[in-house]
Amino acid sequence: MDASDEAALREKATNHNDGSVATDKMKDILEACRWRDLDALRVLAESPGGFLKDSIRQKAWPVLLGLPSAEDGNEPYTAQDDGSWKELPRHRDEDQVQLDVNRAFIYYPHHQNEAELEQQKAELSALIVEVLRRYPYLCYFQGYHDICQVLMLVLPTPLRAPAVARLSALRIRDFMLPSLAPAIAQLRLIPDILRAADPALWRHLSSTEPFFALSGTLTMYAHDITTLGEIARLFDVLLAREPVFSVYMFAAIVRGRRAELFDTPRDEPEMLHSILSKLPRPLDLDALIADTRALLDAYPPERLRGARGSPSSSSWRHTISPASVLKTARDPRACAAQSMDDGRAFFDRQVRELQWLERRDQAIALLRRYRRPAARTLGLAVLVAVLAIALRRSPPGGPTGPLGYLSTLLTRWFR
């Protein structure tokens, strides 16, 4: 889709308040689903109202997630809907799954009796456990049930598990690793975005760590938005856009609260964190989506600069792994074409990187024990031995490359 076609579709989709125009928009969405036109679906998802209603989402979300359909001549995932997963080995995190499921469905859906609520909890538990047993390398995280809850309530039963599986392995994989470090690395982009888009606000928040965004980004905002209509509408765009869009969205939320934040002294980081850790109410989703799109268009992650003022020092270059979903799914079309085997390969690479980083940190800790001049010779010999082992085991193309880490360590040694 070229720029003129996108502009025309965006203008058409934006003017949908009139009933006839809304009908035209629904036709456009279904036509885009038929042809698996992800560019058109992205534009339609970003326009006011998104995909408008759940019956349309049931067509659009599977396409965005890359699920095969009967129209493609492929066998849909219904072949797995046979209960065979129940015979698979128990996943290590199932006890935590049940604890979280017991707290699900607090805000929606409404008007359900106790029996209906228990049935929905049983279905949610089965959905999560099925995905974890079929893909046991994935690690459950608290808040995952919030995401699965949305997909369960919108999608028909045969599509739920395959949709959740592809979302898990290909779009939120960073959160399903053995460590939260990759999730924290995503948050480090927020100061870089603010530095580029709003230097005054960036300076004001310089003493506040971006952990305030963890709940929102980790759960695709499903933990913080309390109505099904709003979160389903937000999922329209989060599934249509690349995963980094979610990080930019929180940066846009921060910018939208700049007046309130400037009223709070910069030397009170706890108060600033408290303000930022809660989403503003009311939340104008359509305006937020438009602001996020503009922010990402103006300051794409590849052009962000870090604390030293250069792209090479940015969090995108320095802390985001090449195997992170932020990079492997940078193009939603490429992500939709990836397989579950691709997701497993990226997962394994990230695990190896995390293991290497752990060995690097151990080497740094060891180095600090030999900082006195009399011990430098021995310390340097130990460091070289440790690094030799680490480099042999390191994944190719780590966050900054093994030689970059070696250089950093030696610089610290001789400092």
Low-confidence stretches: 73-79, 409-415
Report the C-alpha radius of gyration, rounded. 23 Å
Count of structural domains: 4
Shape: globular
Strand runs, count: 0
* String of helices and strands: HHHHHHHHHHHHHHHHHHHHHHH
Task: Find the structural class using helix and strand composition.
Answer: mainly alpha
The average pLDDT value, as a whole number, equals 87
Sheet of most strands: none
Query: How many angstroms separate the termini?
Result: 53 Å
Number of separate helices: 23
Estimate the helix proportion, in percent. Answer: 55-70%
* Strand composition percent: under 5%
GO biological process, one term: endoplasmic reticulum to Golgi vesicle-mediated transport
Organism: Lasiosphaeria miniovina
GO molecular function, one term: GTPase activator activity
Protein name: Rab-GTPase-TBC domain-containing protein
